[in-house]
Amino acid sequence: xxxxxxxxHAKSDWTDxxxxxxxxxxxxxxxxxxxLMGQHIKAxxxxxxxxxxxxxxxxxxxxxxxxxxxxxxxxxxxxxRIYLASSQTLIELLRELPDxxxxxxxxxxxxxxxxxxxxxxxxDGSSPLRDEVEIKFPTATFAVLQLPIDxxxxxxxxxxxxxxxxxxxxxxxxxxxELID
Length: 181
What we know:
This protein is of the alpha/beta class. Helices cover 34% and strands 18% of the residues. It contains 6 helices and 6 strands. It has helices at 28-44, 57-70, 87-95, 112-120, 128-135, 168-171; strands at residues 2-8, 50-53, 76-78, 103-108, 142-147, 161-166. Strand 2 (50-53), helix 2 (57-70) and strand 3 (76-78) form a beta-alpha-beta unit.
C-alpha cells in the first residue's frame, strides 16, 4: 500500500499584471491558508517520506509557510514537470518514484492536481470525497489517496481510495469561497 498526498498551492496574488504566472507570490489570504493547512497536516499525522513540488513561486511559498506551521522542514524535490502539468504527466512522474517510498506529498497546480483524483479514484459513486472534488478543489486544498500497490510503477487509474479531503474553509470559514477560490 502506498499513500499519495495532493496539496494545491495556496491563493496567489494577481495584483502585478506584469508578473509571469510562474513568479506570482501568495497573497495574504493564501499565506493564511497555507499556514492553516500546515497545522492540519501536522495534526493529521501523515509522515510523508518525500515532497515533490512545482518550482513556481506560489508553490514554494505554500510549502515554506505550511512547513513552518507544521514544525517541519522538508527536503523538497523540485520538478518543473509539475508546473501546470496534466494528470497524465503527474501520474507518469509518480510511476517513476522509487518503491522504497511508502508515501509522497505532491504539491502543485490545478487542473492537474484535481484531475489526478478524477483519474485515480473510481467514478462509481463509492467516494463522497471524490464527489466533493467535482464541485470544487480550491487553492490550499489537501487530499490523501491510498493506493493498493507495492510498486509506484504499478499505479493504475481507477484503483485509489480517497481517505481525506480538507479545504481551508473546512478549518476556518473566513477562508470560504467568497475569499479563496
